[in-house]
Amino acid sequence: QYRRKIDAYGNIITAGLIDLHTHVAGGLRKIHQEDLMRSADSGGVNSGITTVLDAGSTGAYNVGAFVNGVVANSKTNVFALLNIGTMGIMRIPEVRSLADIDSKGTVEAINSRPDVLKGVKLRMVSPAIQELGSDLVSCAKAVSSASNSLLMVHVGDITGKSSEAVKLAPFLLSRILDYGDIVTHSFSHQPGGLLSKNRPLDEIFEAKKKGVIFDIGVGVANFSFDSAKIMLDSGFIPDTLSSDITLAGLYDGPVFSLFDAMGKVMSLGLSLTDIVKMTTLGPAKALGMENEIGSLQIGRTADISIFELIEGQFIFHDVTGATNNGNVAIRPKLAIKNGDVMPLDFGPRPWGWLPNQE
Fold first, then answer.
1. How confident is the model at residue 3, as a pLDDT?
2. pLDDT value at position 9?
3. Is the peptide bond before 254 cis (omega within 30 degrees of 0)?
């Protein structure tokens, strides 16, 4: 017999959604007035999402606080990638020189909790790329290989907009990344992204063939409708969709939530089926956890997301200030985590979860 009956008539019921790129180390950076990190549950179950991957908020020298504080005290499934910089993005820029990297310490940290720490995160941005060049990405790959874990690389130089980033992107795709590694910010318009002279890099398609995973990773500075349209028109479809949510992008946008990101990408022509796969089975496979999460098959963890499609004339925003109109938006209703119903927050906007309407 059921313990509680939930009326989900007219809603979409899926496996618990997975946000593959978040920053949920809230409380570790500042005592109060945090302006960057969210708490794991506010970005997770209280937003209708059951699993999150923190992408490099902490590094080898402060990940203990994250594992023992955030992970241990969250209802959301929380996993993490260790930043190649020893302090993560608690200090930005996180890598200025090799002195900010402890390869041995990072490997040891990942190996100490492989159930939680799934790999390495590298931001391919200035000043690190100007100082270290290709040695930066080679070092990050060496750490992920030594720890038998995945590597996620942020492409697009949002800080220095360096020509060095433009040179590194093809090298990264053709020489560094292997099966299971992840490129995040696939629709970035920044130098060093996946576009060169308004066309996709040739190396993208070869990388996809060898099993490199491409993530959208909206973020506050890494998503452009124009770039997305060029990439999609070329036949390139990313494997996963994540928010790269921070407090900076939560209330002021353009991220707002994973559900807003889903509606944003649907406005570009991808189907609901595509979007659900990118936020369930796709990220579950990326984490090597497709036998545990990302599916409603019998035997999987009882993680469920319930949301509704709202028809209307909605306005979605990118990081450049451009807009794209869509006739569908997505509003979360609730998350069920390990069989327990989780309370849902009001939403990031004064009126709740939905985008602006015409």
1. 73
2. 95
3. yes
